[in-house]
From TrEMBL:
Residues 4-254 form the Endonuclease/exonuclease/phosphatase domain. Its EC number is 3.1.11.2. Coiled coil: none annotated. It holds the Pfam family Exo_endo_phos. Keywords: Hydrolase, Magnesium, Metal-binding. Gene3D superfamilies: Endonuclease/exonuclease/phosphatase. This is Exodeoxyribonuclease. Its cofactor is Mg(2+). One of its GO terms (molecular function) is double-stranded DNA 3'-5' DNA exonuclease activity. The lineage of its organism: Bacteria, Bacillati, Cyanobacteriota, Cyanophyceae, Oscillatoriophycideae.
DNA sequence: ATGGCAGAACACTTCTGA
């Protein structure tokens, strides 16, 4: 089974790139982030025509996540509330950043972790709180589903191999100690990054700034990840970043990442 | 230290992204 994740930076703007990529790569499941569209305006038809079942949770202008799957998913849920309760989820479900479902006996969770703006800002504080809720959510999800795959745009650089210039960006959002600690605590629930099962060297990225010719210079960040519970991690056959769509005209600033189990 | 680019919307300017 191939499970892809891709921050598309507007599904309506990227529709040709995404449908073409699906035809070439035919993943069983693709998790999308930053769809930037309300559910009533999501372009379902091109994906249905390609044989995908579509599960979407969007909002106007910002955020928005979706899971497309060749086989139907069951137990679709959105946000934290279904596992954590309305009271704990609170305002954190207002932004559409999480959608989950079950395929076979595998729990698939698609996330768009908040960006955080700047270290120390209000949005940064929101990001850290959101990650703590995600940790609580995953603890429950792993108890229910020993086979679990969470993937998406984590907006965190796991370690210094995962960014072109760690020293110059040491104070940037995405690299701070509290963010990395939050990610470590999530991983310690019993998850592993399959990309690092197969590739140990640096220089592999999933996001490049649109500005300053970052992509041709490979000035990138690896911030789009999969995390697999142990039974799936053991089975993972490969995990790759496909930079081909990043070379197209008017690309997303992120490239898709694919794990094969 | 700043700007550079791209997308969306109560749109020609502002917010957000990382």
């Amino acid at each position: 089974m191939k499970i892809a994740t891709w921050n598309v930076n507007s599904i309506r703007t990227r529709i040709e790139h995404v449908t073409s990529w699906l035809q070439t790569n035919s993943p069983d499941v693709i998790c999308l982030q930053e769809t930037k569209v309300t559910d009533k305006d999501f372009p379902l038809e091109p994906f249905i025509n390609l044989g995908y079942n579509c599960y979407i949770s969007g909002q106007k202008s910002y955020n928005g996540v979706a899971i497309l799957s060749r086989s139907p998913l069951t137990q679709i849920t959105t946000g934290f509330a279904p596992l954590l309760g309305e009271e704990t989820a609170g305002i954190f479900d207002e932004q559409k950043r999480l959608i989950a479902g079950i395929i076979d006996d595998i729990c698939i969770i698609c996330v768009y972790v908040p960006n955080g703006s700047e270290v120390g800002s209000e949005k940064y504080d929101y990001k850290l709180k959101w990650l703590k809720l995600l940790q609580e959510y995953l603890k429950i999800a792993l108890d229910k589903s020993p086979k679990l795959c969470i993937c998406g745009d984590f907006n965190i650089v796991p370690d210094d191999r995962d960014i072109h210039n760690p020293k110059a960006n040491a104070n940037s959002v995405g690299l701070s100690v509290p963010e990395r600690l939050a990610l470590t605590e999530i991983i310690e629930l019993g998850l592993n990054d399959p990309f690092r099962k197969f590739t140990s060297e640096g220089g592999h990225y999933s996001w490049w700034d649109y500005r300053a010719a970052a992509f041709p210079r490979n000035n990138g960040w690896r911030i789009d990840h999969h995390y697999l519970s142990f039974p799936l991690y053991e089975q993972a056959k490969n995990c790759t970043i496909d930079i081909a769509p990043r070379k197209l005209i008017k690309p997303s600033d992120h490239a898709p990442v694919i794990v094969e189990i």
